Amino acid sequence: LGGCHLGDDGIEALAKSLRSNCTLEILDLRQNSASDRAAEELALVLESQQHLESLYLNNDKWCKEEQRNMISDFGAWKLAFALVERQKVLKVNLYGNIVSETVQAPIRDTL
Hints:
By secondary structure, the chain is mostly helical. It has helices at 7-18, 36-46, 73-85, 101-110; strands at residues 26-28, 54-56, 91-93. Strand 2, helix 3 and strand 3 (91-93) form a beta-alpha-beta unit. It is built from four helices and three strands, in the order H-E-H-E-H-E-H. The termini are far apart. Helices cover 41% and strands 8% of the residues.
C-alpha cells in the first residue's frame, strides 16, 4: 500500500479493519501522507496484531513532498509505547519522518 495516497483517514479505516485480521505480517504504508493521527491509530492495533512483523511508515528519498509521511515525536512515542506492550518483536521503519534526534535515543532506550 506504499504510495497509495491513503492519508490519515484511509490509514484510520485500515487500522480499524486490522483489528480483526490476525494473519498480516508486513504492512507497508510508506509515502501515504500519514501524520501523528495515523500513528496513533496504528498504535492502538499493534497489541492485538501479534502476527505483524514489520511496519513501514518511512519515506523514500525520491518521495514527492505531498506524499511524505510526517510522523513527529508524538506519533513515534505512541508507536513506541505500543511496542513495549507487545509480546512479539515488531520492526518499525520511520526513516524520513520528522522525529527529532533528541527523541530517537530515549525511544530506543525504552524499547
